[in-house]
Structure to design on (333 residues):
């Protein structure tokens, strides 16, 4: 049986936490504008929005608009909803007249797949289904699914067989399926940040599974974050500052299929296995969708390969927590 319950398939491992000299995202001094917060379900997980706005009713209207937009986008890209466009695509292998947001999201996913050499790949859903089915039965073989079954699932994985246009989305092989859980949280975060900016908000923090700061904290400083060690909750391993930047984190301790923890939600589309290279990976980037997808891909790459890719990415930084407890910050190229 699957050992650890999860809020979402990719639980964020970089969390905001109290620490000396660091402020929680919701902290506000009395002379700041009123704090308005929303917390609720997003793509099978929990999200929150923090607003500082002088007009409470205007802030409430913006929050209501953001919640409506989240629901609208979930109807397109949620793997948890049977009636979503994504679920329809996975059932039928084709989606005719896709919404423009779906086209944009899939196009971004394909672009990041190309940048990572296919290590980030939205077509890994057949592997997920295989491991879920294998370890979802009593007395499952602890060695994982048979190699033949893994090879069969791998034959259905490959972002180059995902064809995206304004007219239709096509899965090039029968049995292919998509998951957007490695990018959708970030994409929704970006969309809500844009909505709030258009509504006149200059400073806010949005976390819909991945985090993005719009502007600075109302006190005039960056938003401060502490990255939590996934193997020792409450112990921070790094501190970051966010101002008009996004933060996404991934790690192999968030969800495992088996009792021994050998097989995680981070499945390598090249091998069908979970390499467990880093305890945690956090990515700072201009947009949450980019940070989200890169944190997934980088979790499956050795440190040296990540460092070699960064010069090709603008304003992207990576923080790695190694399994021996040491950490490193790889600066933008």
């Amino acid at each position: 049986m699957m050992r650890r319950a999860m809020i979402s398939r990719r639980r964020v491992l970089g969390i905001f936490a109290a620490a000396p000299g660091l402020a929680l995202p919701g902290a506000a001094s009395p002379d700041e504008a009123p704090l308005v917060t929303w917390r609720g379900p997003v793509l099978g997980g929990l999200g929150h929005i923090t607003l500082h706005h002088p007009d409470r009713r205007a802030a409430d209207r913006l929050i209501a608009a953001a919640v409506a937009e989240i629901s609208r986008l979930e109807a397109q890209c949620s793997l948890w909803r049977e009636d979503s466009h994504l679920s329809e695509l996975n059932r039928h292998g084709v989606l005719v007249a896709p919404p423009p947001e779906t086209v944009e999201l899939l196009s971004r996913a394909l672009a990041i797949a190309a940048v990572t050499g296919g290590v980030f790949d939205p077509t890994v859903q057949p592997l997920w289904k295989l491991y879920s089915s294998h370890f979802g039965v009593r007395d499952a073989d602890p060695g994982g699914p048979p190699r033949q079954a893994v090879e069969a699932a791998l034959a259905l994985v490959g972002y180059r067989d995902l064809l995206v246009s304004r007219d239709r989305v096509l899965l090039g092989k029968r049995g292919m399926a998509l998951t957007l859980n490695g990018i959708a949280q970030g994409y929704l975060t970006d969309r809500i940040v844009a909505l709030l900016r258009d509504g006149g908000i200059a400073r806010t923090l949005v976390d819909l599974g991945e985090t993005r700061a719009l502007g600075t904290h109302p006190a005039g400083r960056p938003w401060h974050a502490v990255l939590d060690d996934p193997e020792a909750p409450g112990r921070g391993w790094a501190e970051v500052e966010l101002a008009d930047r996004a933060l996404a984190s991934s790690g192999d301790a968030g969800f495992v299929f088996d009792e021994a923890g050998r097989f995680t939600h981070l499945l390598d589309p090249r091998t069908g296995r979970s390499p467990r290279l880093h305890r945690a990976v956090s990515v700072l980037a201009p947009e949450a969708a980019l940070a989200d997808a890169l944190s997934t891909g980088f979790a499956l790459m050795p440190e040296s390969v990540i460092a070699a890719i960064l010069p090709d990415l603008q304003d992207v930084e990576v923080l790695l927590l190694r399994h021996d407890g040491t950490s490193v910050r790889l600066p933008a190229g």
The chain has a mean pLDDT of 88. The longest helix spans residues 56-77. The helical segments are 56-77, 85-92, 100-115, 125-135, 147-154, 184-198, 288-298, 303-309.
